[in-house]
Amino acid sequence: MQLYQRDAIEAAVTLDHAALAAVEAGFAALGRGEVVQPPILSMAIEESNGEVDVKTAHIRGAERFAIKVSPGFFDNPQLGLPSLNGLMVAFSARTGQVEAVLFDEGYLTMIRTALAGAIAAKQLSRESSQRVTVLGAGEQAERQLEALRLVRDIRVVDVWARRREAAESYAHQLRQRGLEVNVHEDLPSACSQADIIVTTTPSREPLLQARDLPEGVHITAMGSDSPDKRELADALLTRADAFVCDTRAQSETNGELKGFAGREAPFKVHELGQVIAAGESLRLTDATITVCDLTGTGVQDTAIAGFALSRLAD
């Protein structure tokens, strides 16, 4: 058994085209029905403002599968500790023996989450997209943009965050990379010229409304990953011409389909893996509005763990 620490994992795995291809292949396998993926195991630790999620999946024919344990303890910054942590354990798919422990402290989750956003934009946004609006200013906001630039020639970034100082700090980082960046006081102005909107907030109430959407925009919603979070209004989902999620079951419990709990959504629900596997184009014209709701799947974890081990073994 091999034990890998975060510094070695970071050196081996970055946001690049090879990592993107590995995660995209995992989604495609899910879409073809070649993945065994149980529901997420979640546990709240209320007295510490914490939660733990366990995710896993097996891609049929793959040499190994991964089980990820991902704790989030949201009072940790007051103790000088990061909010997120975790590790992945890789097992042989032939014998069940532990092959490696990836003590990545949540790094690989951050990477595969950012890559999923890029994959959604690759499949659903206009190829000519150059202007992106980012809602939120945390690490995932930064990483989503970095991954997005693998698939789209982004030149202008519009930023909105609840805390102006956080938005300004984020904008400063992006300007150092040669991007044109605008910080906005309100959502409508931030979104008015967007080709792509990426939401990366922990909001518990819908932030983005149907009236905020310009013609032809693509929205990737990243923030709603638990039953108590929402970023998109129901009216926005019904206005969209195509709604895509990583898995319908997770979107209904943790993602943006929660607003239709107990009733059928009044639109067709597509799954990202099926769109990829079928080579389906949901963007019929430049005016098409698309939404992708990403809650995070076990197949992404198995895909990125396998990719990481292939790099670490070189």
From TrEMBL:
Domain of life: Bacteria
Coiled coil: none
Gene Ontology, cellular component aspect: cytoplasm
One family name in Pfam for this protein: OCD_Mu_crystall
Gene3D superfamilies (alphabetical): NAD(P)-binding Rossmann-like Domain, ornithine cyclodeaminase, domain 1
Annotated NCBIfam families: PRK08291.1 (NF006141)
Protein known as: Cyclodeaminase
The organism of origin for this protein: Halomonas halmophila
Lineage of origin: Bacteria, Pseudomonadati, Pseudomonadota, Gammaproteobacteria, Oceanospirillales
